[in-house]
């Protein structure tokens, strides 16, 4: 056997498993879901068909708009809040901490919560925000509130808060990387030219870190868009998100065709947001080139 | 390194295949139960396991609507399900459960005739379910927080309890609200009636703290002071809360409460039929009926067994001597237009 052939074969051997994996566990399921989205609901379950009734139903029945719009709103709020909190943190780590070992330790401290179960962290917020929870007890004890408030838990605020907390590490990581890559001499040059710290930040640091912000915000947005656990745990009666509706179509409603159609719509929205953010990031990079 | 990665991947695929194969063909002598909390409680399951050698694994549901999707997704995971009589018909129609071999059912003739003859478990001369327990869906409230004794579903719309009300995440909310609005045809509502029910339930949303879905969740909501009033699975959560020292009380609203009867059904193609029949017979015997009844507080479907194992006070408190009590409830039935009801309930939950 020729050496080139043998190399090609061994490359194939290495690549085949991941390719097969992707094919089996990503493309095949998506194809199945796409097919299902044309099936027809018929009591008691559903039957194979090719029709657009499910997509039509999504357009005609206003309950789906309401939930889509709410999910977009919550996802946007989480993305903005997570960036607002993660950016100063990453900035502090990169520019203010001089000792590399301390920086590494603090960076780890941000990442470590990712090793704790999502559910456990969401449950923790229940005990903090509840009517008889830690925060309410403190507010009443300190005299800020006369009695405990119901406004902290089981509403959209609690969902945004919980998801922001959970997804902050996903924003810190890309922002940290973006800030770290900024050549220090650019900042020094700005300072040498007599520009103040605020204008240096706005004119040099912030624009150069935009790819990190975009990547982080996209992470937070897309992960929130598909979340269905937080609305169940800390959300209120009006906190249903799109993933909950999909779950109920595959569950309670036993309408897999409609659930599949909804999933396809979510997939399209998420993919277009990812590609838009990717394009924005490239455009930004070129401008600063 | 690369080769090692590849090997690891191959290893995982092989591992997954083994797991998948193991899941599909269950070992003999086990019983996988899918159903309501309390029907496979440690307190009596241990006894069953040592007597029969059948190992019981329990998975719980939060609503009758969970059965069909879990069974329809296939895989032969479950052998036996406990389903309320309004949902049994769907499982039969969808071919997800097996007709029963009545020669293997030991306590059939002791069970209340009303439940045995229920439409949901009989089809084309074949029987698909064995009644196990029955009860009501009353309202429950914190007696220390709500001092004025409520007597109607209307209390769930009372502004005074804003933010302290919870509602079961289940389409039965439509039945109750329809009765509150004065409709008698709760299982065959017209479009206009359903719309009125929907508006009424959407109007309630600002007053609600949470839609609850499992027994444990509701118990936690009461115990942590989040909720003062809600509907409940009669007898079960109230007992758990009283055990924790939370002052709660149940009542049947004047519009009549929902009534239900749960039935054992055997999943189509279950490889563990022997264990399934043994479990049905065990749980409908005196030991099983009282075991379940004392854990859940529900009434027993087999009054002969109940008479043998309950104290006379308990026998009376659980209305075992008077099946006419059932007439004071509105027994669940499968709505004529199940899909429309389900969709309406989803629309209510999704609304602002």
Total discrete domains of chain B: 2
- CATH top level of chain A is Mainly Alpha
**How would you sum up the major sheet of chain A?**
2 strands, antiparallel
Mean pLDDT of chain B: 88
Query: Secondary-structure element order of chain A, as H and E?
Result: HEEHHHHHHHHHHH
Intertermini distance of chain A = 48 Å
The number of domains of chain A: 1
Task: Give the fraction of residues assigned to helices of chain A.
Answer: over 70%
What's the level 1 CATH class of the largest domain in chain B?
Alpha Beta
Structural class of chain A: mainly alpha
Main beta sheet of chain B: strand number and arrangement? Answer: 7 strands, mixed
Relevant CATH superfamily of chain A: MetI-like
CATH topology call of the largest domain in chain B? D-Maltodextrin-Binding Protein, domain 2
Estimate what percentage of residues of chain B fall within beta strands: 15-25%
SSE arrangement:
The complex is a heterodimer of chains A (289) and B (352).
Chain A: H1 3-36, E1 40-42, E2 45-47, H2 53-60, H3 62-96, H4 100-111, H5 118-129, H6 134-141, H7 156-181, H8 184-192, H9 197-225, H10 229-233, H11 242-250, H12 256-288
Chain B: H1 2-24, E1 30-35, H2 42-52, E2 55-60, H3 67-72, E3 80-84, H4 88-93, H5 113-116, E4 122-123, E5 126-127, E6 130-137, E7 139-142, E8 165-168, H6 172-180, H7 191-204, E9 208-212, H8 215-223, E10 229-231, H9 236-243, E11 248-251, E12 258-266, H10 273-284, H11 286-296, E13 299-300, H12 303-309, H13 312-317, E14 330-331, H14 338-350
Parallel strand pairs in B: 1-2, 1-3, 8-9, 8-10, 12-14
Antiparallel strand pairs in B: 3-12, 4-5, 6-12, 6-13, 7-10, 7-11
Please describe what this structure looks like.
The complex is a heterodimer of chains A (about 290) and B (about 350). Chain A contains 12 helices and 2 strands; from the N terminus they run H-E-E-H-H-H-H-H-H-H-H-H-H-H. Chain A has a two-stranded antiparallel sheet. Chain A is globular and about 70 Å long. With about 350 residues, chain B is of the alpha/beta class. Chain B folds into 2 domains: about 190 residues, D-Maltodextrin-Binding Protein, domain 2; about 140 residues, D-Maltodextrin-Binding Protein, domain 2 (3-Layer(aba) Sandwich), CATH 3.40.190. Chain B is about 40% helix and about 20% strand. The chains are: A mainly alpha (about 290), B alpha/beta (about 350).
